[in-house]
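idk why but the lab printer keeps eating my pages so im just putting this in chat instead. protein + NDP:
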Amino acid sequence: MSTLKEDALKYHAEPRPGKIATHITKPTATQRDLALAYSPGVAEPVREIHKDPEAAYLYTGKGNLVAVISDGSAVLGLGNVGALAGKPVMEGKGLLFKRFADIDVFDIEVATQDVEEFITVVKNIAGTFGGINLEDISAPRCFEIEKRLQAMLDIPVFHDDQHGTAVIIAAGLMNALEIQGKKIGDVNIVCVGAGAAGIASMNLLGALGADKQKLLMVDSKGVLHTGRTDLNAFKREYAVDTDKHTLADACRDADVFIGLSGPNIMSVDMLNSMAANPVVFALSNPDPEINPSVALAARSDLIIATGRSDYPNQINNVLCFPFLFRGALDVRARCINIEMLKAAVYTLAKLAREPVPQDVLDAYGLESLSFGKASIIPKPFDARLRERVPKAVAQAAIDSGVARLPLPL
Ligand SMILES: NC(=O)C1=CN([C@@H]2O[C@H](COP(=O)(O)OP(=O)(O)OC[C@H]3O[C@@H](n4cnc5c(N)ncnc54)[C@H](OP(=O)(O)O)[C@@H]3O)[C@@H](O)[C@H]2O)C=CC1
Ligand SMILES: CC(=O)C(=O)O
Ligand SMILES: [Mg+2]
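predcted complex ->
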């Protein structure tokens, strides 16, 4: 039998290399077609856009085109593999944008990890696009890059690993805590990984009612505590006065473990030391902080999720970014703000409580599935995501004053 590695390499190589290509949207069969598509006809939209840049939305693909841009500095949990090696992931994001939200993508791998150079590249190509999805850029550089680019540009600049991840964690956690009979403001949370995903996810959980005093963040050197002198400004926000200094200390009596760090970091002893009815989101890709089979064998009162497609409860930003951008592009939003993120959270969480459609069951080879410990979040194939999340996001953009168009009919 072939292995996942063999299958994955073959999938990417055959029948033609890569996962995504461009296609033509206009007739090209006759001399007249070419005269319209290219010279001389193409001069007409050029003149219109020269007079009014907004006309680019009318005459080019800009409004439905997103750039997935990476410097390859934090690719999944594989680390700093560089721009080119990250390309399969960026093509993958393009595939997901297209498959789930019919958004066109150019993936762009920028071979510099210098913040100024990177910002200059993105700023200078941004006019081509309706939105910028920054991907797999390590912290703390990613925070400055996103903030400065958003301030310069009038299209959404969205770091998926920060906010896409935060949205799906928040939606999944709201449901998981309800099933476990706990409230977000009461629970002790451990977040391992104080990078792009960890910091942004804890910021959003805080905005949704999590108590910072009950939160311990952990990086590769241990718990972020006030005695540490090696913390950057983003980590310092989460430093607490505690004598818990190791991950094992932090896990003791915790209700929630969120892993946004690297593979196999959580031991069974750590899991066993958590409070009753715990929630573990082991979200490092491709290998989670703890293997779900091992974890479930150790504790039957557990809810566990991973970032992977091959286990129940996939907490992965694929459930957010296609639908969030669809909503933002539909109303030509200038940015993606917290109101839009919250709208996505609530819509995703609510949808998970409804019966799962048959075609979704078929795609996963399941007889049945209903809201509960093994189904806290919708599956990406659920067509209702495309119907509901963009609409909620677009409405939030309108209500918060960042939309330039009304809701589509
Ligand atoms: N399921 C999903 O949808 C998503 C999952 N992720 C996963 O989250 C992880 C982090 O991604 P991202 O935030 O973008 O990367 P960053 O590089 O920005 O951050 C990584 C963080 O993990 C910490 N870390 C690394 N190794 C360890 C360790 N052994 N013990 C404790 N902490 C550790 C780093 O510590 P230090 O600061 O000390 O270097 C850093 O704080 C990846 O595995 C990625 O696949 C990310 C986005 C979405
Ligand atoms: C899912 C994703 O974006 C990551 O692991 O980096
Ligand atoms: Mg990523």
